[in-house]
Write a structure and sequence with these properties.
Elements lengths: L1 E6 L11 H13 L4 E8 L2 H4 L6 E9 L2 E10 L2 E7 L1 H4 L17 H18 L13 E5 H4 L1 H7 L8 E5 L7 E2 L20 E2 L2 E3 H8 L2 E4 L2 H6 L3 H4 L3 H6 L4 E3 L29 H12 L8 E5 L8 H13 L3 E5 L4 H13 L4 E4 L4 H10 L2 E4 L9 H8 L2 E5 L2 H6 L5 H5 L6 E3 L4 H15 L2 H12 L6 H17 L3
Parallel strand pairs: 1-2, 1-6, 2-5, 6-7, 7-11, 11-12, 13-14, 13-16, 14-15, 16-17, 17-18
Antiparallel strand pairs: 3-4, 4-5, 8-10, 9-10
Helix pairs in contact: 4-6, 6-7, 11-14, 12-13, 12-18, 15-19
Amino acid sequence: MMQVLSVTSEIYPLVKTGGLADVGGALPLALKGRGVSMKTLVPGYPAVMRVIRDARLVHTFDDLFGARADILEVTHEGLDLLILDCPAFYDRPGGPYADATGKDHIDNWRRFAALSKAGALIAQHGLGGEAGTGWRPDLVHVHDWQAAMVPVYMRYAEAPEIPSLITIHNIAFQGRFGADIFPHLQLPDHAFSIDGVEYYGDVGFLKGGLQSAWAISTVSPSYAEEILTPEYGMGLEGLLNYRSADLTGIVNGIDADIWNPATDPNIAAHYGTENLKSRERNKQALAERFGLVDGDGPLFCVISRLTLQKGMDLLAETLDELVALGGRLAVLGAGDKDLENLFHAAAVRHPGAIGVIAAYDEPLSHLMQAGADAILIPSRFEPCGLTQLYGLRYGCVPVVARTGGLNDTVIDASPAAIAARAATGFSFGPVTTDNLRRALRRTVRLYKEPKLWTAMQKQGMKSEVSWEGSAALYAGLYSELIARKGT
């Protein structure tokens, strides 16, 4: 049995801001039947500490970047967790990264250097002693910039050689800080170099992790190719090309038990491919929730952060035409205030046709997937994306930009794909307003062909979107890295 330590800044169902949490929570469960035992180290935010019960103290750090911290071990909803209980760093109002006003915590560099240092020390020394478990990982798997310093601390420590894998969930978020923090990172002076953590004169957490980890993965094959280019590499494409032999793309999956229209407790009516007509009750419930009137055209939905990356400015420009085509739109999401205002203004212009709820609401997102005809995802870049996978699972046809994981998971409704009953959605590219408009027109046209539309829904619902295949790829990668140890 391979023993793996996962280090992440968020994990579903304890704390979530995006897809990172979904992966952090689903992957350990998917790996259990594949010879992998995974423990996950996560910060002890208030949301975490409120929920965990019967945790066991397994280690204490008397001085972790100037603070006392405990490692608590607990099992929660099948997940084997190690909680870094450090009130000085994590017991704060707001979210994992920002305060209640949305402003980033000024000491985020220290908070996540502490998480990384704790992970590295566990990897190097295990959890021993009278109160410990004697557990030690064979491999460390870290996620995004918040945990990227784990392989850096391991690299510069006099410790046993332990394989490490870093996964990039979104290269746009890099953990870049001023050089003035370097003396406080507890690294040797020579670590501030081009092959260490130095990044254009600053300190780069993600850059250091990419330089130091044994292997690099990202969350779709297409995104693994895209980040090798200046357009998508965000300044790290040179390093990634240098390490391209160690880079792989493994598409994310979803928890098919939680996201199951036949059993989902958050929807108005259960259904499957054999009784798709039952979706109509969900559509009615969704329309009522967003104040939408009946219509002959498709009911579109958006479940997204309202940001430029997600292409929400492009969508905002098409809203009048979407309504003119007979479409309706339910929007769930918050983000850029200017973009929020554009959607609210469109809802005022088109009462009964556009409804907006500026919030994050997990149960409502299930109802939207179960009730909407199509989900719009016009992202400028999308490392993997999960909402299109939920859409496929629920017969909510994805309309996506042809980028990253969206490109890998949605089969465009070309004439040939429709004829072969292989199409699962609509994709468009390059990502422009005009191309999005064309995709909307194609969607509305096919919606008016009920037999073809239903066939596409059913084909999407048959898509393999669970973690089974991806977990097998991760387990294989772990085995390869462990086999390299000592060679």
